[in-house]
Design a protein that fits this description.
Structural class of chain A: mainly alpha
Radius of gyration of chain A: 21 Å
Shape of chain A: globular
Number of strands of chain A: 8
Largest interface: A-B, 53 and 47 residues
Shape of chain B: globular
Oligomer: heterodimer
Strand content of chain A: under 5%
Distance between the termini of chain A: 33 Å
Largest sheet of chain A: 2 strands, antiparallel
Largest sheet of chain B: 2 strands, antiparallel
Strand order of the largest sheet of chain A: 1-6
Distance between the termini of chain B: 56 Å
Chain lengths: 392, 296
């Protein structure tokens, strides 16, 4: 997927003029070819690939939707939030509670899954709205720390609101169903000799949701709201003089990103088929932050790539622990795969901020620009810095 | 009544330790405009070194080693990472510290695992009886030593040359550079000092009645964040007040947990964040923080 949401990703002159480069039809077709090929490959994947990889894909897509929300909030609007895990939890438990049946001491409303999923997303947005009086008044870093509080308070609520959340042990999640088809192992659909259990059918559901979320995020970032977000990030005073209502813009970025987190929460619930409080702690928020930094701040394709990397790394390392030097499987004496993954991505975050703050997407853009101009008279533009830099 | 007094004494002692962490945090922020998300892992590293070296070196030498390692680490982090980033880019600097925190925490988790290392401090296990009150010796030492330490720090900042340089560069970095103050040295010093403060606080936090050094100590240290916000992020006095508020409230709420059961189990661990959110709604820049002024 190409990405030129940021004016800075284009050659500098065009960006200054504020005019997108006019593209001829063949160019556009070529631009669309890659996403189309990727989409076809993704659609065909369940017929060729083991369940293990598909399951990683499910988690990666769930995370990608959340990362898209955070990249709008932090990448575009410059609001650093460490509370993302809280809104993901709202989505997860919202869905589990609204769609769940009553079992034991755990309550549920038994709504149809689609209605529950939509309401859970709205609920996450509502929570974002309730927090936005704080979010709207605080700047970048202050918000980051204030939103830390949400994670801790949220975790406390998850442990204690037992009728809704099931307490420490969590609660089971109803499988999704749409028009009589249930996305679970119970379905006996077989296509091309591949049994369509939970993972295969969820794959297509997740793919559709992720594609939709990506489109929404791209349109927001490219359109008027995205421009307002970036203006507020770069200069609040400047934005106010241009007629952007700063507080409202910040609050709306926050609500929007909470809703993305809510969708991510619903997807997480469906992928895990169980909701456990300890998943939604500070680590999850930091994971989301690492995803968008590794991918490149403010870029939708970067968010997806970063999410895939951060999610897949520990699982893949654990799987190939025997073949890899240094790393051992869980329970053995040595470097645990999950800790090894933490080393890798923590160091990567530091290295990226020190050398190429634009992350993966900036590297891809730089390579593409260099190739486009066979002998570049000027060095490739560094979109890198600008995507995070704020004017003093 | 004795119960209340004991709780208050414990709370003040915990609050003073939080104040030390928060002070380091605020010093770093004032000197370099970095929100140091790695502060909690600095602290954990410090006490880990103390606990790991203590059986061989004895407590005093181990404590000195722990302080030195943490101060040095903070210094190196500033030199190698923070100093290489555009100093106006506050977000990038904060993110680098988050990355550093991930790596440090991973390493300490690898080394500690589920273990609980005893700190082996000479004051561990002793209880002092003051009239009707019985308090752990740690509490008494903290209540006496930390104010002395803070006083010493204040004296350094007000009376010595480097304190003057520090204050000048905080007030106006450009002006300070023009009159010949080496800003690099000031920021390195600030980071080193903050590392020392974090390790000191860590020794207090891991002492009796707490059982020792474990990974969860890092999570305790995160309470310095709300303390810093409550006090106002750029005020040294506010850092002390914020730390005290968080410590006292936390201990009181945990102490009267039975009466507050409607708030749920373990509410003492999160009450600091509740206070923080209330304070933020009331005063967005904390109790003593300076309001941000934007010049057009």
């Amino acid at each position: 997927m190409s990405d030129d949401t940021l004016a800075t990703a284009r050659p500098a002159a065009e960006a200054r003029a504020g005019v997108p480069p006019a593209r001829s039809l063949p160019q556009r077709l070529r631009g669309a070819a890659l996403p189309a090929a990727v989409l076809v490959a993704l659609l065909a994947l369940p017929f060729y690939v083991e369940v293990f990889w598909l399951r990683i894909g499910l988690f990666a897509m769930a995370a990608a939707v959340g990362a898209l929300g955070l990249t709008i909030l932090f990448g575009a609007a410059g609001q650093l939030s460490l509370g993302h895990a809280f809104f993901v939890a709202v989505g997860t438990y919202g869905y589990a509670f609204l769609s769940g049946e009553e079992q034991g001491h755990v309550r549920g409303l038994g709504l149809p899954p689609l209605a529950a999923a939509v309401s859970a997303t709205l609920l996450a947005g509502l929570c974002g709205l309730l927090f936005s009086p704080i979010a709207g008044r605080l700047r970048g870093i202050y918000l980051g720390i204030a939103s830390l509080g949400l994670v801790f308070l949220g975790h406390h609520l998850l442990l204690n609101a037992r009728p809704v959340t099931g307490g420490y042990d969590g609660r089971a999640v109803e499988p999704f169903s749409l028009g009589g088809f249930t996305f679970s192992d119970a379905s006996d659909l077989i296509l091309l000799r591949v049994p369509f259990g939970a993972v295969e059918s969820l794959w297509y559901l997740f793919l559709a949701v992720t594609a939709a979320a990506t489109l929404v995020a791209r349109n927001v970032l490219r359109g008027r709201p995205g421009r307002a977000f970036r203006l507020v990030r770069d200069s609040e005073v400047g934005a106010a003089t241009m007629g952007v209502r700063v507080d409202r813009t910040k609050a709306s970025a926050f609500v929007l990103s909470s809703m993305f987190a809510g969708v991510a929460g619903v997807l997480t619930a469906l992928a895990f088929q169980r909701a456990v409080p300890d998943y939604f702690d500070l680590h999850l928020s930091i994971d989301f932050l690492a995803m968008i930094i590794i991918g490149g701040l403010g870029s939708t394709s970067g968010a997806i790539a970063g999410a895939t990397f951060v999610i897949a790394l520990p699982i893949v390392l654990a799987r190939y622990a025997d073949a890899l030097p240094l790393i051992v499987g869980p329970g053995q004496n040595g470097l645990d795969a999950s800790i090894a993954a933490q080393f890798v991505y923590g160091a990567l975050v530091v290295a990226i901020m020190l050398t190429r703050p634009g992350g993966l997407s900036a590297m891809v853009t730089a390579v593409r620009d260099r190739r486009a101009r066979a002998a570049p008279p000027t060095p490739a533009p560094t979109p890198a810095r600008d995507s995070v830099r704020r004017t003093p | 009544m004795t119960h209340l007094l004991e709780l208050i004494a414990n709370g003040v002692s915990l609050g003073l330790l939080y104040s030390l962490i928060t002070l380091g945090f605020v010093i770093i922020f004032k000197a370099t405009r970095v929100v140091n998300f790695a502060h909690a892992s600095f602290l954990l590293l410090g006490v880990y070194v103390v606990a790991a070296a203590q059986p061989r070196l004895g407590f005093a030498a181990a404590a000195v080693l722990g302080l030195a390692v943490t101060g040095l680490l903070a210094l190196v982090a500033e030199r190698l990472l923070i100093a290489r980033i555009d100093q106006r880019d506050h977000h990038a600097m904060a993110i680098v510290t988050i990355g550093l925190n991930v790596v440090l925490t991973a390493e300490l988790t690898r080394r500690l695992g589920e273990r609980m290392l005893p700190l082996g401090a000479p004051w561990d296990g002793h209880v002092v009886h003051l009239g009707p009150l019985s308090l752990p010796l740690t509490v008494v030492i903290t209540v006496v030593a930390v104010p002395l330490l803070i006083g010493g720090l204040t004296a350094l900042l007000t009376l010595t040359g480097w304190g003057l340089a520090m204050r000048a560069s905080i007030a106006d970095a450009e002006g300070a550079a023009l009159v010949g103050i080496r800003l690099r040295r000031v920021s390195a010093l600030a980071w080193g000092t903050a590392g020392l403060l974090a390790a000191t606080a860590g020794i207090g936090l891991a002492s009796f009645p707490n059982p020792g050094v474990s990974v969860s100590l890092g999570a305790v240290a995160i309470a310095a964040f709300p303390a810093a916000i409550i006090g106002g992020f750029d005020s040294l006095g506010g850092a002390i007040v914020g730390g005290l508020i968080v410590g006292v409230v936390q201990v009181l709420v945990s102490g009267y947990q039975d009466a507050l059961s409607f708030l749920g189990l373990g509410v003492g661990d999160v009450v600091a964040y509740l206070v923080m959110i209330v304070v933020l709604l009331w005063r967005p820049s904390g109790l003593f923080g300076s309001k941000e002024i934007s010049r057009v």
